[in-house]
Specification:
Blueprint lengths: L6 E2 L5 H5 L3 E4 L13 E4 L8 E10 L4 E9 L8 E6 L2 E5 L6 E6 L15 H12 L9
Antiparallel strand pairs: 1-3, 2-3, 2-4, 4-5, 4-8, 5-6, 6-7
């Protein structure tokens, strides 16, 4: 388990994302609370109904690659989830309907996560993440 147990989403650094780390939500989420304040802990084993925070990368039409975090229930078949992106040295929540990314990939999708299939398969996610990892520029806060 991470030495920074009890950290918040806003405490994740770009280096953690590039390393492909995953976290779990530590408690029930108040949907009215700022998503960046949600408490998380790093881990590598999850139950079917837990909520995972995935490290991911997205490429914009401009060619820029950004670190993103995707928050979703492990056992859900619904693709994607709540998302934050790292812009100008800080995390910000991506609001519904706002999709600046041309392509996005999760670093280490969980084997028990059923939403990673077909064009979103575990293998395609890992390979796409590796390709984008080579293109990301790490700045302040990494």
């Amino acid at each position: 388990m991470d030495a920074r147990a009890g950290m918040r989403i806003q405490d994740v650094n770009v280096g953690d994302v590039i390393a492909g780390r995953n976290w779990r939500l530590r408690s029930d989420v108040n949907v009215f609370e700022n998503m960046l304040d949600w408490e998380i802990e790093e881990c590598d084993a999850f139950g079917q109904t837990e909520v995972v925070v995935y490290s991911a990368l997205s490429a914009l039409d401009s060619g820029e690659v950004r670190a993103i975090l995707v928050v979703r229930e492990v056992g859900s078949y619904e693709w994607w989830g709540d998302t934050c992106e790292y812009v100008a040295g800080r995390w910000r929540q991506i609001v519904g309907g706002e999709e600046p990314a041309r392509e996005s990939y999760v670093a280490a999708p969980l084997p028990e996560d059923p939403s990673f299939m077909g064009e979103y398969s575990h293998e395609k996610q890992r390979a796409g993440f590796e390709r984008l990892r080579e293109r990301i520029r790490v700045g302040a806060g990494a």
